[in-house]
Amino acid sequence: MKKERQEDRVRRLVDLVALVGETVPIVRCGSRLIGPCPFCQEEDDSESLEVFAAEGMFGCSNCGREGDCFKWRMMFDGLTFAEALEACAASVSSYRKVA
Predict the structure, then answer these.
(1) CB neighbours of residue 42 within 10 Å
(2) pTM (2 decimals)?
């Protein structure tokens, strides 16, 4: 059995909808989870950001930015990958850091 990498475990445990929803109003529109993209310069981007909960990914149909929980933290908070990993790990209560 292959050992799960730390970043893969954190990515799997993070609730991306909750993470994005901390800063962007996310609404359900049918089967889609959408909201305004904080990275767009467009004036009317109220539905350009889509969160794909099952895949743990987000994407914007206007600016094309996309990614996972780490990429969100890196772009939104201006963090490095290592800082984003630590921030996401800290937000997951069931996460235990492996030495």
Answers:
(1) 13
(2) 0.84
